[in-house]
UniProtKB/TrEMBL annotation:
Keywords: Membrane, Transmembrane, Transmembrane helix. It comes from Glycomyces harbinensis. InterPro entries: BaxI_1-like. The chain crosses the membrane at residues 47-69, 89-112, 119-139, 145-167, 179-197, 217-240, 252-271. It holds the Pfam family BaxI_1. This is Uncharacterized membrane protein, YccA/Bax inhibitor family. Signal peptide: none annotated.
Length: 281
């Protein structure tokens, strides 16, 4: 799964926001100045509502492929997991692959232009949900209960980071931004290289396969990426708050929601991987 460099969308959002909400110059007959209509600006509540909608779309799409994969597997008397419905499994794999391609394409697009179109945001959420559901079901067949634990861990980590930001225990700063953005670029490059190399049947040994014991290097990489996923929320919260306070257009609430949704999905993926390492060792 490629790293979700979702902060690009929010960085571009900040660059394009404006402080003056007036749509045009004053006008009116006989020198009477009539103010042009004001543009609608984004609020934090707008971001929250849109984030909930995108997460819900991800969850619904995930249920579809999760049920397909879950029904396709069964456990034998010897404790072995085998596929009993190859058609359902292949369909889930196809949907997951399409979702991965769509999600990766939109993520790359967001690096150059903020995602302010709700259709694009929902396409990403649904695509990621299709991929997430199938993979989660496969992990669940290997380690029952791992999906619920990963979901709970994602909620707890997100809530903890929100509380740390809310009470200003953790704050954004130019140095913090440089570290998070720089690390994000490095993680994205690393995972993309690993993905491309994997397409040619090679393995760099950066991530342990499901069921395999993780090496020290793989543990370090998994923990490091998970920590990055958690701390990058501070940057997201700060950008959203700054944009809302400085009059960004309302359409950019979708960019904020897209960033948070991508962050939650990416955090879940990495927590799921970490939990599988614990199960395999």
């Amino acid at each position: 799964m490629a790293m979700q460099s979702r902060n690009s969308s929010l960085r571009n959002m900040v660059k394009t926001q404006y402080n003056q909400q007036h749509m045009g110059a004053a006008y009116g007959p006989y020198g009477q100045m009539t103010q042009a209509p004001q543009a609608e600006t984004m609020r934090i509540d707008d971001v929250i509502v849109r984030t909930v909608a995108l997460v819900a779309a991800t969850f619904v799409a995930a249920i579809l492929t999760y049920s397909m994969v879950a029904d396709a597997f069964t456990t034998t008397a010897l404790g072995e997991t085998v596929i009993t419905d190859q058609s359902a499994f292949n369909t889930a794999m196809t949907l997951g692959t399409i979702g991965m391609v769509v999600g990766l394409g939109i993520m790359i697009f967001s690096m150059f232009k903020p995602v302010t179109n709700p259709f694009v945001a929902f396409a990403y959420a649904i695509g990621q949900g299709l991929l997430l559901g199938g993979v989660s079901a496969f992990f669940e067949t290997l380690w029952p209960g791992i999906v619920v634990n990963a979901l709970l861990a994602t909620i707890l980590v997100f809530g903890a980071m929100l509380a740390l930001y809310k009470f200003r225990i953790l704050k954004n700063s130019p140095m913090f931004t440089k570290v998070i953005v720089g690390a994000g670029i490095g993680i994205f490059a690393l995972t993309m290289i690993n993905l491309v190399v994997g397409m040619f049947g090679m393995d760099l040994g950066l991530f342990a396969a499901p069921g395999e014991s993780a090496s020290a290097l793989q543990w370090i990489i998994a923990i490091g990426i998970t920590l990055w996923a958690a701390f990058s929320f501070i940057l997201d919260f700060d950008m959203i708050e700054y944009s809302a306070n400085n009059g960004a257009p309302k359409k950019y609430a979708w960019a904020g929601a897209f960033g948070l949704t991508a962050g939650l999905i990416f955090l879940y993926w990495n927590l799921l991987r970490l939990l599988s390492y614990f199960q395999s060792n």
